[in-house]
């Protein structure tokens, strides 16, 4: 799977390099239309940010498309998307491909701390799972951990965390984070792996319903147990904490870079916080007393 992805990237680099022309600037941070692709695990926070930005700048339109993380990266290289959200680090080969196609250095615009969380049916006796146990299960032919799909951010990140690659792991699939949560009770002996943002939204009725339908496991590492809570994302003590970042192929300060800058400002970070995630940029609040 990983080899085929690298082959596709190489082909895209060749095609795009042959066609590369100077692009005419047709948008700005205050007006224009672009496409942004994100993995379903980051869909909620991405939608909240784009909606807020478009409300501030009514002459802009950001078309949000849901795409598996690896496929979104390929679309960025091919020019089908202006901005994407990533959670895993790019390989050295991917960074070279990105620079060759975009003429830009790999400078991730970090904006939020998220996580991969492990869930079981509500009546399961299990309360926690260790990092070592996760490694063992993912190398077991019984495929007891269920992910939301191949090429997904959750699978990619967990594989990277345990120093492996998705093609070397044994796992089951139920497509979609929400779908996985809703169907998990049919598989009492399985463990689901989903994005934290699927459950984290504190004021969203759908997220509350999903939270109440499953049990979220604590993760044990070095004999310490950690819950996937915002305070444990802030200091990254929860073992499967990940940092979300934007990538763009935009070589000027247009709508893509304008949106990215907004997301990393105080207003954008407030949106991140309301989504139940940890803002990456912390702004000191000062109150003057007279």
TrEMBL record:
Gene3D superfamilies: Periplasmic binding protein-like II
Domain called PBP: residue spans: 27-263
Pfam families: PBP_like_2
Stored InterPro entries: PBP_domain, Phosphate_ABC_transporter
Keyword annotations of the record: Signal
SUPFAM superfamilies hit by this protein: Periplasmic binding protein-like II
The protein, known as: Phosphate ABC transporter substrate-binding protein
């Amino acid at each position: 799977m990983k080899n085929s992805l690298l082959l596709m990237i190489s082909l895209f680099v060749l095609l795009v390099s042959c066609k590369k022309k100077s692009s005419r600037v047709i948008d700005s941070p205050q007006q224009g239309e672009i496409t942004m692709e994100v993995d379903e695990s980051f869909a909620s926070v991405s939608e909240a940010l784009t909606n807020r930005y478009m409300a501030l700048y009514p002459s802009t339109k950001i078309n949000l498309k849901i795409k598996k993380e690896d496929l979104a990266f390929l679309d960025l290289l091919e020019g089908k998307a202006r901005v994407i959200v990533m959670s895993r680090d790019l390989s050295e080969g991917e960074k070279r491909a990105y620079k060759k196609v975009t003429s830009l250095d790999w400078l991730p615009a970090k904006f939020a701390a998220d996580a991969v969380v492990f869930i079981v049916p509500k009546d399961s006796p299990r309360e926690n799972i260790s990092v070592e146990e996760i490694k063992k299960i993912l190398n077991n032919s019984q495929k007891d951990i269920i992910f939301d799909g191949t090429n997904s951010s959750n699978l990619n990140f967990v594989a990277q965390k345990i120093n492996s690659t998705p093609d070397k792991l044994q796992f089951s699939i139920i497509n979609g984070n929400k779908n996985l949560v809703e169907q998990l009770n049919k598989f009492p002996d399985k463990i689901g792996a989903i994005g934290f943002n699927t459950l984290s939204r504190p004021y969203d009725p759908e997220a509350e319903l999903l939270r109440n339908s499953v049990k979220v496991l604590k993760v044990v590492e070095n004999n310490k147990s950690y819950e996937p809570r915002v305070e444990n994302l802030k200091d990254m003590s929860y073992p499967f904490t990940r940092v979300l970042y934007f990538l763009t192929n935009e070589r000027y300060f247009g709508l893509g870079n304008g949106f990215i800058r907004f997301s990393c400002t105080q207003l954008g970070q407030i949106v991140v916080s309301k989504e139940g995630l940890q803002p990456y940029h912390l702004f000191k609040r000062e109150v003057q007393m007279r």
